[in-house]
Amino acid sequence: MFDRRIDRVLVVMAAAGLIILGIAEVIGRLDEPEPLWFWLPTLWGGATLILVGGFVPTENRLLSKALVVAGCAFGLLPSMWTLVMPVLLTRVIFRTLIAGPPPAELPNQV
What we know:
Elements: H1 5-28, H2 36-55, H3 61-79, H4 84-98
């Protein structure tokens, strides 16, 4: 879905950040695993949606954008305390929503 290199880097950084936060939560909550029922689906599920929406080829660009935005939205609440991840996820949402069609799909201009 993403055409420019910067968009791909932002998507990978956002997904990697959510995955790392999920791993940290697992390690930090080994003695009390009940909160992981919230943390893991939101963090790892959000990362999965971002990666699937961003990198799995599909004909439906609206579906890809919706998956990326939903993944970022899932990851916002549990990562709010980091201050960096909400900014990154918000930036990914913004760039996803304003992204136009890839250059191959643009009409030929004479």
